[in-house]
Specification:
Low-confidence stretches: 9-29
Largest sheet: 4 strands, antiparallel
Strand order of the largest sheet: 1-8-7-4
Number of strands: 8
Mean pLDDT: 79
Number of helices: 3
Order of helices and strands: EEEEEEEHHEH
Structural class: alpha+beta
Distance between the termini: 36 Å
Length: 119
């Protein structure tokens, strides 16, 4: 049984980069998002994306293993979606899950929100 899920709605690669063009008067604002290519095989824990801003670089790890079936090209054009629309437009990749039993070990939105409140 295989299912496809989206990575990044909240979260060996060759990458595609998106560059945010700064507004006039703000030359230091820049964001870059590296995303995987379609048909990339990923294991749980693999880096699936990298998000770079002026102040930091952060890796996004895949909580599941499978094959990347689609990527969000909108992030290449508008990487700031990661901050402005993290639960809607900023999905990173759709992954065909290789073992759906791993989903039993993941948090749903309510559990994740409770976890964040624990600090």
């Amino acid at each position: 049984l295989h299912r496809v899920t989206r990575m990044g709605e909240r979260s060996g690669f060759s990458s595609q980069s998106g560059h945010h063009r700064p507004r006039p008067g703000c030359p230091r604002r820049r964001s870059i998002i590296d995303i995987p290519e379609v048909d990339t095989d990923v294991d749980a824990g693999d880096e699936i994306a990298s998000v770079e801003s002026v102040k930091a670089v952060g890796d996004v790890s895949s909580p599941i293993g499978g094959i990347v079936k689609a990527v969000n090209e909108a992030l290449s054009d508008t990487p700031t979606l990661i901050n402005s629309s993290p639960e809607d437009q900023a999905w990173i990749a759709e992954i065909e899950i290789s073992d759906v039993s791993v989903l039993d070990n993941l948090m749903d939105k309510a559990a994740y929100d409770a976890f964040l409140l624990q600090g």
